[in-house]
Amino acid sequence: MTDSSTQDDRLAQCKSEVARRVEQAADDLIRLSHEIHAHPELAFEEHRASAWVGDTMAAAGMSVQAGVADLETSLTGTVGSGQLALAVCAEYDALPMVGHACGHNVIAAAAVGAAIALMGLADEYDLTVKVLGTPAEEGGGGKVLMLERGAFDGVHAAMMVHPAPYDARHMRALARARFQVRYRGKAAHASMFPHHGRNAADALVVAQVAIGLLRQHLPAGEQVHGIVTEAGFAPAIVPESSVASYAARAPRAGELDQLLKRLYACFEAGAIATGTDVFMEETAPRYTHFMPHQAMSAYYVQNARDLGRSFGNRNAKKMSGGSTDMANVSLCVPAIHPLIGIRSAPAVNHQAEFAAACIRADADKAVLDGAVAMAWTMLDLAADCDLRSALLARTSALAMPGDP
Questions:
Q1: Domain ranges of the chain
Q2: Which residues pair with 181 in a beta bridge?
Q3: What angle do CA 86, 89, 91 make, to 5 degrees?
Q4: The domain at 3-173+289-399 falls in which architecture?
Q5: Which residues pair with 336 in a beta bridge?
Q6: What's the whole-model pTM score?
Q7: How far is Cα 364 from Cα 371, in angstroms, rounded to an integer?
Q8: Are 206 and 195 in contact (CB under 8 A)?
Q9: For 166-212, what is each residue's pLDDT tens digit?
C-alpha cells in the first residue's frame, strides 16, 4: 500500500470518527441550540448564550476564554495546538421582536460540534481549531470589531454555516451601511399656529418620496430599506423631531459609497423643503461584500453532499442579498459561509415562521450535519498538502487579502 493510500485510509477513518463523535454529542448540541433559541438576546447582550456556548465547550474539555477583544459576550474555545489554525465562527444574537428568526442558535451549536468532533484528532493533523464566539452579527458588527482588535490574527482560514430554507454553497452577501437620520424642526400648535412650526415628520416624508423615485434608477443589486422610529407625539403638535433607521446595500464597497451619496441627498432634500435641520450618522461598522475561498468551498460542498445534502434546488439560486460581518473576515482571511437548509419553505429568514422552524427536526439535523461537514472540511484542508502550504504562507492573516 502506498503512502498516499495509507493517508487516504486514515483520513477516511478520522472522518468516520468525527461523525461518530457528533452523533455521540447530539443531545448536548441540540440542547444548546434550543436553549439559545428559547432565550433570544440582542446584539452585545448575549450573556446567557455566550455562557452556554462556553460551558458546553468547557464540559467537553476545551480551553475556553471569555471576553475576547474587549467584548463581554465574545469568546474562544480551542482544540489542538498545531501549526495550521482554522477558525469556526459561532453567532448567537437574535433579532428584535422575532427572536431567532435567522437561526443563529443553529450556527452556534454547529460550530461547537465541529470543534468537539476534532478533539484528539486536531494534533494528529497538526491543527489548531478555534471556535470564535462572535456577538452582534445582526447589527453591531462583532466580527468587524474582533478583526480590528486582533482576534483573527494567526488564523489561516475561517468558516461557518448559516441556516436558510435551502442549502447553498455561498451566501451572495452585499456590502452594507446602517445609519440613522434625525430631523430637528420646531414645535407649534398644529391648528392655531402652524405657521410658527417646522415639521420634522414632513421632512422624512419628502425624503421617503425622493428615495422611492430614486429606486427606479438604482443599478441591479443596490437596495435601500428603512423604518421611521419617531415622527411626533400628538396630532395637535407640529412634530419637532423625527428619526429613521436605514440600511443601504450594494454589490461592492465602492458602489455602496456612491449609493450613500445619493441617499444623503434625498434626506437633505427633506430638510431643505421643510426648513428643518438634518443629522445623519452611521450606527454600525460597515459590512463588505463576501469573497468565498473556492477550494475550501469545494471541500465543504462535497462533504455536505456526502451527508446527503443537495445544492441543486432552483429556489436556492434565487436567494440573493443579505449582508454579514463574516464578509469583512473574508477579505482578510480565506473564508466560507455556506447556507445550510432547514426545509422551512415557504418560511424564510427574518420571519416568525422561520424562527419556529429553527428548533424543528430539520434544524436539529442541520446542527449535526453542519458540525460534521465543517469538521470534515478542516481535515481536508489539513491533509491537502498544496492547500495547506498556501494557507500557511499567510503568516499575517490581517496583512493579506482574501482569495476570490
A1: 3-173+289-399, 175-282
A2: 244, 280
A3: 175
A4: 3-Layer(aba) Sandwich (3.40)
A5: 159
A6: 0.92
A7: 11
A8: no
A9: 999 998 899 999 999 999 999 999 999 999 999 999 999 999 999 99
